[in-house]
């Protein structure tokens, strides 16, 4: 049974996929109300109101996925979630149209003083000349951040006869051409635009992106809009420029602190606002709720999510192809870790053969998580694998090769420590399964599942018999046994599997046998 906490107001109709699923309990409560039971939840669903801090994450040790029913994830400590192995997903396009339409409504309201005129009439006044506005037609609209919402605004602005200038360092010339917009640097855009609207995420780079220094280069009388995130336009600087009438007016759907109690911008007639309503339409709320409900369901069923912030995107079809290799590399990582009884400095992997015509980074993360899972307490998975390796100074190497050592595909993993190195090769054959085919250069073949003993010894009569006798005397049943050697009389290996893990006592007894170089135990 999975328990899901819905901590913000998410449209219930959109949560239907989760409500219909068996083995899922959905609980709708604010974080403060769920304080006592936070440790029980497997998934957390939020909008922008709940701040998912590291402190909250640490109170939720069972948490596997955080889903944001919306776009901006600036209310979620994504690095902390990643560190704790928690997947973060959002609903990137469910509210695009609603937010673009809201921005456009705000732009028209700003240019035509609609909120001010409305209040005046409601107050019994009829001051027509006080609210003379400006046309949007023929004006230059500067869009900062040309993603999904920026793109929809550009399309609408064109229909209104506006000239669209955009600044987005990540905008390709192809997309700019397709949207028929002029791509400029921010320095070029600011002095040209009559109206500027921001649509970037809030990041350390975009915080204060528009500030009094660069806004002073704008035309006097410029209009500004922020329907993205509070703080992209510096609020104190905006206040100063509005007082000076350098900025003629501003439309704000978002604030640094929400609700913006005591914010001095609210005192100005030239500022019009809405209470973070960009995504607040029936359609957008249904879309984002459905998107995240489906993502959470897919994730809890063990399938790949489409819109993860901290995992590479992979389609269901691709994941199905990748899955056997995904398990195999995890087991290879686990073998490497359990055999290397010392600190690990380097993990390298080569994907050889025809099977790897896809982004192998998900496999490498699975391999690394296999290495660290047996060594660390707490969640270790492909979300935090790279971070764990980095924190421990472990070098990761990944190569793709056409050489598969005679197999259709072959994954070669080397785990290096201070004194030792372990080389493991594995392959996967459809309808047959995965096999480890070489250990430290010894050809061998075994299914990487169960409890194993790896013995490296001198190839001479009696060694295998001695091992069998000691195990038999203690009634330890050998489930499978594989042997391999490079040359007669040289070093050889045996890999034995058991129904139960081998006891410490038995391991010691076997270790005392002559002609045994070293032994490793592993459980896969
Ligand atoms: N008011 C609301 O209710 C509401 C609703 C939806 C989204 N939003 C906000 O709007 C933002 C944009 O949403 P979207 O769906 O268009 O996202 P998006 O990811 O499609 O677009 C963001 C764009 O910003 C650009 N960008 C990033 N850093 C930049 C920088 N330093 N300078 C200029 N451009 C930069 C990116 O290249 C990208 O094209 C979201 O992050 C969210 O915070 C607000
Ligand atoms: O980033 C978003 O999707 C919007 O800001 C919407 O936020 P909300 O879910 O709190 O309305």
Automatic annotation (TrEMBL):
Domain ACT span(s) in chain numbering: 452-521
GO molecular function annotation: NAD binding; phosphoglycerate dehydrogenase activity
Pathway: Amino-acid biosynthesis; L-serine biosynthesis; L-serine from 3-phospho-D-glycerate: step 1/3
Stored InterPro entries: ACT-like_dom_sf, ACT_dom, ASB_dom_sf, D-2-hydroxyacid_DH, D-isomer_2_OHA_DH_cat_dom, D-isomer_DH_CS, D-isomer_DH_CS1, D-isomer_DH_NAD-bd
Similarity-based family: Belongs to the D-isomer specific 2-hydroxyacid dehydrogenase family.
NCBIfam families referenced in this protein's UniProt entry, alphabetically: PGDH (TIGR01327)
Protein name as annotated: D-3-phosphoglycerate dehydrogenase
């Amino acid at each position: 049974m999975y328990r899901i906490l819905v901590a913000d107001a998410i449209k219930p109709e959109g949560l239907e996929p989760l409500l219909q699923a068996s083995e899922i309990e959905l609980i709708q409560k604010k974080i403060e109300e769920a304080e006592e039971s936070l440790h029980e939840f497997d998934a957390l669903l939020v909008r922008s109101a709940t701040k998912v801090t590291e402190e909250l994450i640490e109170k939720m040790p069972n948490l596997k996925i955080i889903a944001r029913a919306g776009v901006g994830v600036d209310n979620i400590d994504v690095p902390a979630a990643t560190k704790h192995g928690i997947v973060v997903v959002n609903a990137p396009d469910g509210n695009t149209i609603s937010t673009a339409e809201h921005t456009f409504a705000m732009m028209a309201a700003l240019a035509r003083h609609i909120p001010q005129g409305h209040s005046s009439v409601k107050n019994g006044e009829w001051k027509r000349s006080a609210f003379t506005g400006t046309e949007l037609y023929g004006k230059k609209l500067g869009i900062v951040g040309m993603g999904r919402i920026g793109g929809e605004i550009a399309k609408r602005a064109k229909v209104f006869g506006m000239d669209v200038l955009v600044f987005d360092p990540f905008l390709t010339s192809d997309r700019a051409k397709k949207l028929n917009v002029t791509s400029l640097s921010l320095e070029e855009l600011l002095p040209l635009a009559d109206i500027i609207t921001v649509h970037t995420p809030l990041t350390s780079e975009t915080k204060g992106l528009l500030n009094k220094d660069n806004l002073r280069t704008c035309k006097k009388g410029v209009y500004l809009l922020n329907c993205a995130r509070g703080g992209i336009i510096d609020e104190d600087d905006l206040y100063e420029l509005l007082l000076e009438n350098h900025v003629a007016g501003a439309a704000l759907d978002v604030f640094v602190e929400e609700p913006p109690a005591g914010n001095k911008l609210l005192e100005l007639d030239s500022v019009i606002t809405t209470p973070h309503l960009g995504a607040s339409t029936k359609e957008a709320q249904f879309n984002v709720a459905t998107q995240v409900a489906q993502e959470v369901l897919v994730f809890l069923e063990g399938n790949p999510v489409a819109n993860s912030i901290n995992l590479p995107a992979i389609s269901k079809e691709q994941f199905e192809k990748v899955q056997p290799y995904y398990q195999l590399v995890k087991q290879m990582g686990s073998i490497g870790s359990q055999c290397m009884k010392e600190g690990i400095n380097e993990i390298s992997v080569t994907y050889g053969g025809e099977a790897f015509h896809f982004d192998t980074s998900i496999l490498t993360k699975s391999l690394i998580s296999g290495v660290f899972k047996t060594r660390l307490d707490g969640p270790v998975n492909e979300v935090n694998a790279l971070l764990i390796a980095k924190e421990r100074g472990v070098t990761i190497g990944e190569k793709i090769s056409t050489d598969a050592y005679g197999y259709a595909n072959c994954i070669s993993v080397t785990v290096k420590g201070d004194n030792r190195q372990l080389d493991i090769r594995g392959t996967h054959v459809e309808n047959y399964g995965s096999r480890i085919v070489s250990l430290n250069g010894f050809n061998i073949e075994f299914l990487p599942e169960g409890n194993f003993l790896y013995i490296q010894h001198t190839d001479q009569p009696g060694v295998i018999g001695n091992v069998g006798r000691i195990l038999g005397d203690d009634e330890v049943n050998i489930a499978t046994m594989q042997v391999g050697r490079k040359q007669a009389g040289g070093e050889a290996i045996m890999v034995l599997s058991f129904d139960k893990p081998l006891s410490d006592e038995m391991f010691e007894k076997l270790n005392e046998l002559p002609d045994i170089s070293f032994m490793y135990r592993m459980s896969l």
